[in-house]
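For reproducibility, we list the full input for the magnesium ion complex.
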Amino acid sequence: MALIVHKYGGTSMGSTDRIRNVAKRVAKWVRAGHQMVVVPSAMSGETNRLLGLAKELAPGQVTPEVMREMDMIAATGEQVSVGLLAIALQAEGVASVSYTGWQVPVRTDSSYTKARIESIDDARVREDLAAGKVVVIAGFQGIDEEQNITTLGRGGSDTSAVAIAAAMKADECLIYTDVDGVYTTDPRIVPEARRMNRISFEEMLEMASLGSKILQIRSVEFAGKYRVPLRVLSSFTPWDIDIHEEAASGTLITFEEDENMEQAIVSGIAFSRDEAKVTLLGVPDKPGIAFQILGPVAEANIDVDVIIQNVSNDGKTDFSFTVHRNDYARAMELLQQKVGPATNAGQVLGDPKICKVSIVGIGMRSHVGVASKMFRALSEEGINIQMISTSEIKTSVVIDEKYMELAVRALHKAFDLDQAAISA
Ligand code: ADP
Ligand code: ASP
Ligand code: MG
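The corresponding predicted structure, in tokenized form, follows.
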């Protein structure tokens, strides 16, 4: 008997028929003798619908008071899901009970809309498991010290599931979704993308942090910190397939490199549309200028990603950086009203229509010329690179958003990741 956590995403929970299927699948795992905790997301489209309603009443408002209510509203999506799934399980003859994040409780900090999990009290869940019940826990949500409802950021149910698995020392956490594993890039953009049987934890961490929506970055961080065995697999296989076959399907996130690991130099391409670029033209080039610009940005709780400072001309320089697109309006306001005047900048420019495309691979550590191959592939498509950022196992470029798909396809091909290239 093992303790297993299943997570089902929005599409997998998208209708009562699909919820029934989830229940049948979970019931199969129960019959095989396992203790089960199940973490579902809101039904597909529901979180967008709920946040859309809130935004209708508070267009452009991002005060802490509004953010608090956004979480209050968004959390209801998962509350509906857990209730429905618990009923569906009971209809399958499986004892089950559902909990919201605050009933568990999943304790978080107070950063509304992107809260971080601080601790999970699993006593109540353990009692239910011991009593033979399947415990269904709402993903994406928690509660802060002042008993306010919080949510964990988009895609946060992945993190709920892995954090619960970590807290309970589960034997495995299975992330069921609408694709059958982690691919070399999003298969919806590149149909030739290839599923990986295994991906190293480090590569998965980079892919997720560079925008791959398949797993929320914090779920991968949790898996790494607590060594949670993690697998991504499809919820669209027939629910009654052999349980051993199911348990070995999809993509395993591995913590050790073994000789069976695929030895590609570049193992995946990630991309993110959630980016925007801001530029201060003609700031005085003197010590402390980066701090004068980025200090107030950090104080405003705006995360900065890629940064470029140009060589100085007549004692002045241009300074650009990228931020999450959700923070673009606030960043521009801050630069125009405060940072620009304070640093005697010539002009503030903004471009929300950019994206970031990245190549990721552990093999890049030991190979030279990988970045230049990337730049050549992009230049052959006539794509202009606006910014570059590198680390040991990734190279990212910031480009015009309209070339994103072209860039991803070109790089996927250039690094021999297309299915045809592998089987040839
Ligand atoms: P869920 O609702 O199950 O959490 P998501 O939409 O959040 O599902 O994540 C699954 C989606 O991630 C897939 O449908 C796919 O389009 C996208 N995706 C992005 N990058 C990858 C990748 N490298 N491999 C597989 N899927 C990816
Ligand atoms: N329902 C939330 C979202 O749409 C959380 C999740 O699906 O993981 O972002
Ligand atoms: Mg998701």
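The chain has a mean pLDDT of 94. The first strand starts at residue 3 and ends at 8. Both points were considered when choosing residues for closer inspection.
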